[in-house]
Amino acid sequence: MDKKYWVPALEKSNLVLQAISEQPSSLKLIDLSKRLGINKSSMFSLLATMEALDWVVREDDATYSLGSKLGYIGNAFFKQFSLIDRFRKEASVTKHVIKETIQLAKLERNEVLYLAKEEMPSPVRLSSEPGIKYPAHATALGKAMLAWVAEPELGTLYASETLDPCLTPHTLQQRSDLVRQLEEVRTNGYAFDLQEAVMGFCCVAAPVRSGDGKVVAAISCSMFQHEWEAKRELARQEICALAERLSQYQTTT
């Protein structure tokens, strides 16, 4: 990383958290200051801020331990891998019902990041491998998640009326058209991509929610355009049902 973007206070906070994690309820302010070479005044400010944020807890004997907020963040980190594991188990069954490849993704600003997929044998391999990103406005997965982004944030993500990039002649090109489709997604509970990301392919997607109802991911099924009319309703039903099962799993874990 270019050091001109480096934030020294964050680096120091990271060192403090590492030290506390290695010896919880053992180190006082003076111990941390000596060990890390951070003066007492700066250490006091760091610890006071992290305590206010629930990153650390100051015990009765003035030692420090990790706070509840880090437990929450750590749980969220591991939960994403639990979701991938559950997706693989559940989607491996659903893909044989639809006889099409199923994908899992999350939203990163205005892009879709593919996390996993369960493939059916096909002469054509989908380019959306795990780790690949696509513009959210051009995919059913993206629209299934953007539909629940708050309007102020959506306005920041799409500040211009013109949407970019345009991947196919069917890709949405106007922000107003995207907003209208997102309203339909919220009403219906699912989203379509009709040759908007890749020519010759159509897709249906549905959101996956956490226990508090927040959309944390989405799943989709893609197929050749010539198979779409015959299989669209089956795919819609199965993808919505799979999203519901994954959401219930998120609630119970």
Structural class: alpha+beta
Oligomer: single chain
* Integer-rounded radius of gyration: 23 Å
Q: H/E element string?
A: HHHEEHEEEHHHEEEH
Distance between the amino and carboxyl termini? 36 Å
Overall mean pLDDT:
91
In DSSP terms (H or I, runs of 4 or more residues), the helix count works out at 8
Main β-sheet, in a few words?
Answer: 6 strands, antiparallel
Beta content comes to 15-25%
Low-pLDDT segments: none
Percent helix: 40-55%
Number of strands: 8
Estimate the global geometry from the Cα principal axes: elongated
Give, in spatial order, the strands making up the sheet with the most strands.
Answer: 5-4-3-8-7-6
Strands, helices and their partners?
Layout lengths: L7 H15 L6 H8 L3 H13 L3 E3 L5 E3 L1 H31 L3 E7 L2 E8 L14 E3 L4 H7 L4 H7 L17 H14 L2 E4 L6 E9 L5 E10 H28 L1
Antiparallel strand pairs: 1-2, 3-4, 3-8, 4-5, 6-7, 7-8
Helix pairs in contact: 2-3, 4-8
Keywords: DNA-binding, Transcription, Transcription regulation
Protein name: IclR family transcriptional regulator
InterPro entries: GAF-like_dom_sf, HTH_MetabolicPath_Reg, Tscrpt_reg_IclR_C, Tscrpt_reg_IclR_N, WH-like_DNA-bd_sf, WH_DNA-bd_sf
